[in-house]
């Protein structure tokens, strides 16, 4: 329960935003509220990067010291592949990350291993290799900074960044 | 006088069991070094140096740097100056030994500074055996006044050498990564400092993420990993000119670089898909050679000081462990078999030990092990200790230690093998990935 993925958090928040919208009539100000909290999930334009982040999910998570794709990760990557196949003008960068509970050099390689696993899965689902660049940040770019499992599990991730379309 | 010197040295030996008096005996002593537990440092008095007029403060500062160096070595215990009955002892006076015995000092450093006719700073010191009432050594230095810290380190080196029989390491520098900003938005810059944290200078401006700087043993050059450009790769930086260059356009990410002992090659990992393997690059010919070829993470290579062997970490057996192979990649042998995972091996400049990071049951420790896998010792263990580097004389290890929490970060620490005394390196910001210069300046 500590490992609520960001995508789900965003989705839950998106639903809240929609509820707020439904409850109010003055859509302009509500829209700005939704904007400042970074949530427009329910309204994301199909094929936009918001659509990808909020409705598809831009990241998958890994177990400690592992680059194996979990069932949940595979299901996210299935949606990513479907979306990327639907919108073939996007190139992507697959970022591999590790949590801070490893040593520097190993984590750089571990991040690369995770990015490779995610990339290979997308390729097996039809996303062509020339659309995918990979990079590892090791433990250099945590998204969660507390010192317990709930944070470390969010940092062990592969993030699919949409690049320039066309 | 020789007997006094021997006796005082013997006092250090007797209490420390840490320091080789006979130069040829180094290997045997190292074993004593790290297996003996309680070591008593030698009490030494370092009163302010004498200096006229405008040099009074400087004379006191020099003495305090000398005392700090000696204390940080773990082998000396400077006596509290508040107990001194004589605040300053000049280099040309006979100390009142009885007074120094009363405060518990066994050795006394008496120094003075003055100005040469050309404006240079003149620093004289004598090291006295307080119990015997005799001089052990004395030296004189001339330097630019703004170079006073370096002279203080040279004085401390002379004292350390004379009393331990080991080369000093105080006149040395460390390159490291300075870290600033929030934990999830860190800015990292390459920086260089005196080993004690003084004179920090920045080598990069923080625009690019930089990691793991290491010295060239034979020139003013470091190798490091940089995220400049599309693919993170190993770079070179000239300390004097500031010039940075990509080492070579390998087909993939390169990382974990170190120089060979002769400075001619860089050894590093090349990432290809899920695997990292170890390569060398000859800097003159540009020729690359592959040393490992396994479907695993093979990284953090470090040469033995004779250049004949390489220690590295690999998870080829399932978990991260240390392996030693020939410098051509031949005959890799696993050397760590205890519980936990082992990483970041660094071969001692003496050749006798390999320092490492061990991760076990959620704790990160710094330890040492012999190249044949025997004699493993954990020196310090806690929430997060990582990335050891050796002092030029192979007696002290510097590493970084992370503090907990969202506002936590890495700090640089030293620990000496004989006494396991730990000292934090005072820095204005966070610091990680230290690499000690292999040579004194």
Shape descriptor of chain B: elongated
User: Unreliable segments of chain A (pLDDT under 50, ≥5 consecutive)?
Assistant: 1-41
Tell me the fraction of residues in β-strands of chain A, as a range: 15-25%
Overall geometry of chain A comes to globular
Mean pLDDT across the residues of chain A is 80
Q: Give a short account of the largest sheet of chain A.
A: 4 strands, mixed
Task: Give structural notes.
The complex is a heterodimer of chains A (166) and B (441). With 166 residues, chain A is an alpha+beta fold. Chain A has 6 helices and 4 strands; from the N terminus they run H-H-H-E-H-E-H-E-H-E. The radius of gyration of chain A is 17 Å and the shape is globular. Helices cover 49% and strands 16% of the residues of chain A. In chain A, strand 2 (90-97), helix 5 (104-124) and strand 3 (132-138) form a beta-alpha-beta unit. Chain A has a 4-stranded mixed β-sheet. Chain B is mainly beta and 441 residues long. Chain B has 2 domains: 5-164, TolB, N-terminal domain (Rossmann fold); 173-439, 6 Propeller (Neuraminidase), CATH 2.120.10.30. Chain B has 5 helices and 29 strands. Chain B has helices at residues 2-16, 26-35, 56-72, 97-102, 148-164; strands at residues 42-45, 76-78, 107-115, 121-129, 134-143, 173-180, 187-194, 201-202, 210-215, 221-226, 233-238, 244-246, 254-259, 265-272, 275-282, 288-290, 298-303, 309-314, 321-326, 333-334, 341-347, 354-360, 363-369, 377-382, 385-390, 396-402, 410-416, 422-424, 430-436. A 5-stranded mixed β-sheet of chain B has the order 2-1-3-4-5, covered by helices on one side. A 4-stranded antiparallel β-sheet of chain B has the order 8-7-6-29, with no helix packed on it. In chain B, helix 3 (56-72) packs across helix 5 (148-164). Chain B starts with a helix and ends in a 5-residue tail after the last strand. Classes of the chains: A alpha+beta (166), B mainly beta (441). At the A-B interface, helix 5 and strand 3 of A face loops of B.
């Amino acid at each position: 329960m500590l490992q609520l993925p960001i995508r789900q958090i965003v989705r839950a928040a998106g639903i809240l935003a929609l509820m707020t919208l439904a409850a109010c009539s003055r859509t302009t100000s509500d829209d700005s509220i939704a904007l400042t909290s970074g949530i427009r999930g329910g309204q994301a334009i199909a094929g936009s990067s918001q659509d990808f982040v909020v409705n598809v999910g831009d990241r998958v998570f890994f177990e400690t010291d592992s680059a194996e794709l979990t069932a949940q990760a595979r299901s996210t990557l299935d949606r990513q592949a479907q979306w990327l196949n639907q919108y073939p003008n996007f190139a992507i960068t697959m970022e591999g990350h590790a949590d801070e509970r490893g040593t520097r050099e190993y984590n750089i390689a571990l991040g690369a291993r995770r990015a490779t696993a995610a990339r290979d899965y997308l390729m097996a689902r039809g996303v062509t290799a020339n659309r995918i660049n990979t990079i590892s940040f090791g433990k250099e770019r945590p998204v969660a900074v507390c010192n317990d499992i709930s944070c470390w599990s969010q940092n062990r991730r592969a993030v699919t960044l949409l690049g320039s379309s066309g | 006088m020789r007997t006094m010197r021997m006796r005082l040295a013997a006092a250090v030996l007797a209490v420390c069991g840490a320091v080789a008096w006979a130069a040829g005996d180094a290997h045997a002593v190292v074993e004593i070094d790290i297996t003996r537990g309680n070591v008593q440092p030698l009490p030494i008095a370092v009163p302010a140096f004498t200096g006229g007029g405008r040099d009074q403060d400087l004379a006191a500062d020099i003495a305090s740097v000398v005392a700090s160096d000696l204390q940080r070595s773990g082998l000396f215990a400077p006596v509290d100056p508040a107990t001194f009955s004589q605040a300053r002892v000049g280099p040309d006076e006979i100390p009142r030994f009885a007074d120094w015995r009363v405060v518990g000092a066994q050795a006394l450093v008496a120094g003075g500074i003055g100005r040469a006719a050309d404006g240079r700073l003149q620093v004289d010191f004598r090291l006295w055996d307080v119990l015997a009432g005799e001089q052990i050594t004395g030296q004189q230095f001339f330097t630019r006044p703004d170079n006073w810290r370096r002279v203080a380190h040279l004085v401390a080196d002379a004292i350390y050498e004379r009393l331990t029989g080991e080369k000093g390491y105080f006149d040395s520098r460390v390159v490291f990564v300075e870290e600033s900003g929030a934990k999830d938005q860190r800015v990292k810059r390459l920086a260089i400092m005196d080993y004690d944290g003084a004179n920090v200078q920045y080598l990069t401006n923080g625009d690019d993420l930089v990691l793991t700087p290491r010295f060239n043993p034979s020139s003013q050059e470091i190798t490091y990993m940089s995220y400049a450009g599309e693919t993170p790769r190993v770079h070179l930086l000239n300390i004097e000119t500031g010039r940075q260059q990509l080492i070579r356009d390998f087909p993939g990410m390169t990382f974990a670089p170190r120089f060979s002992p002769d400075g001619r090659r860089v050894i590093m990992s090349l990432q290809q898909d899920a695997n990292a393997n170890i390569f060398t690059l000859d800097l003159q010919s540009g020729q690359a050679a592959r040393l490992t070829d396994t479907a695993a993470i093979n990284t953090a290579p470090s040469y033995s000081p004779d250049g004949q062997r390489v220690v590295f970490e690999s998870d080829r057996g399932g978990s991260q462990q240390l392996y030693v192979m020939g410098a051509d990649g031949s005959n890799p042998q696993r050397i760590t078999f205890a519980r936990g995972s082992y990483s970041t091996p660094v071969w001692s400049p003496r050749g006798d030990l390999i320092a490492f990071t061990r991760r076990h049951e959620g704790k990160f420790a710094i330890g040492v092990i012999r190249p044949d896998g025997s004699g493993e010792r954990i020196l310090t263990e806690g929430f997060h200790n990582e990335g050891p580097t050796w002092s030029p004389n192979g007696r002290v290890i510097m590493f970084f230690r992370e503090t907990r929490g969202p506002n936590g970060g890495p700090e640089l620490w030293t620990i000496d093998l004989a006494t396991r005394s730990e000292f934090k390196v005072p820095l204005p910001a966070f610091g990680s990935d230290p690499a000690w210069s292999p040579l004194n300046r």
